């Protein structure tokens, strides 16, 4: 953040004031921009090659795909001059792709584990002597229906905020995880339906789960 802010502010000064003090053939703005970019890129590469936590990978990818090319280089005071320089990306494409794969693998596992924990909690609730919650006057599992859908949606949204391509790849992966989760849910529900007919709230639990189907569709 400090490097980005410094680069943006300094290049704005160069564009507005320093550039016009030199003949055009000196390419003063280009020299400044390239030097700043090369240093910024070297630091990004150094970070990318070190051990990064998941949140750091996400932040670095956000800089590579969003903050740097869009928020900084498309700034109204700099865009025209920077378009002439052709600075390239903060990271080599191979390294950027490696980070993207790490992020996608991690996010896929995170969502998969979250769905599994959610189903375990739901199964545990079926075993309790407790009536299901009502949503808009109807029995429904807010935990299962809403949590699962929000988990997948928010994960997709975060990925799309990095780039459209990363978002599409994660969506493709999660579209494989959702049917697997739904099969586990169906199997668990069928098991409850067959073995728990004497449960005090057997019928409301059945209704709540049937009502979940529309949300999942």
From TrEMBL:
GO cellular component: exocyst
Upper classification of the organism: Eukaryota, Metazoa, Chordata, Craniata, Vertebrata
Gene Ontology biological process terms, A to Z: exocyst localization; exocytosis
Gene that encodes it: Tnfaip2
GO MF terms held by the record: SNARE binding
Source species of the chain: Illadopsis cleaveri
Protein's recorded name: TNAP2 protein
Pfam families: Sec6 (PF06046)
InterPro entries noted in UniProt: EXOC3/Sec6 (IPR010326)
Domain of life where this protein originates: Eukaryota
């Amino acid at each position: 953040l400090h490097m980005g802010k410094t680069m943006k502010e300094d290049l704005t000064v160069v564009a507005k004031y320093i550039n016009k003090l030199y003949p055009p053939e000196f390419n003063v703005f280009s020299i400044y921009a390239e030097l700043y970019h090369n240093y910024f890129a070297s630091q990004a590469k150094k970070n990318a090659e070190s051990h990064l936590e998941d949140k750091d990978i996400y932040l670095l990818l956000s800089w590579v795909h969003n903050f740097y090319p869009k928020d900084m280089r498309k700034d109204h005071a700099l865009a025209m001059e920077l378009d002439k320089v052709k600075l390239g990306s903060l990271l080599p494409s191979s390294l950027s792709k490696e980070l993207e794969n790490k992020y996608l693998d991690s996010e896929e596992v995170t969502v998969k584990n979250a769905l599994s924990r959610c189903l375990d909690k739901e199964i545990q609730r079926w075993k309790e002597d407790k009536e299901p919650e009502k949503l808009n006057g109807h029995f429904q599992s807010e935990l299962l229906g809403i949590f699962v859908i929000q988990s997948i949606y928010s994960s997709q949204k975060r990925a799309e905020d990095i780039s459209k391509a990363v978002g599409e790849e994660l969506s493709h992966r999660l579209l494989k995880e959702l049917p697997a989760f739904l099969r586990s849910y169906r199997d668990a529900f069928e098991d409850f339906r067959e073995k728990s007919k004497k449960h005090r709230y057997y019928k409301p639990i059945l209704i709540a789960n049937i009502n979940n189907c529309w949300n999942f569709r």
